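User: Please look over both lines:
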Amino acid sequence: QVQLVESGGGLVQPGGSLRLSCVVSGFTFSSSAMNWYRQAPGKGRELVAAITSDGGNAVYDDSVRGRFTISRDNANDTLYLQMNNLKPEDTAVYYCNTGDSWGHGTQVTVSS
């Protein structure tokens, strides 16, 4: 059974940082490309960042490039998203994804 469990969200002030984690099980993580998506209130789900199975390549949405970093620990089946210089428009539920599998999400709220 594939499981993806996100954590690390919370309330942070503009300019602050958070690190999201996604612990996975039920599939071969080290062979799987992984993604972070987000969904803001009233909007569709959008791709934030993606990383290849070996972690050698990553891509980012223009809105987060230079502020967010996606990474992975294949030894511990964990995906990360380091988010720096957070802005109010980053407020959303953040989801870990691979193929058709999704986590339940973790809420990130950026507000003063």
Observations:
- Residues 50 and 101 are 14 Å apart (CA to CA).
- The chain has a mean pLDDT of 97.
- The chain is about 0% helix and 50% strand.
- The two ends are 40 Å apart (CA to CA).
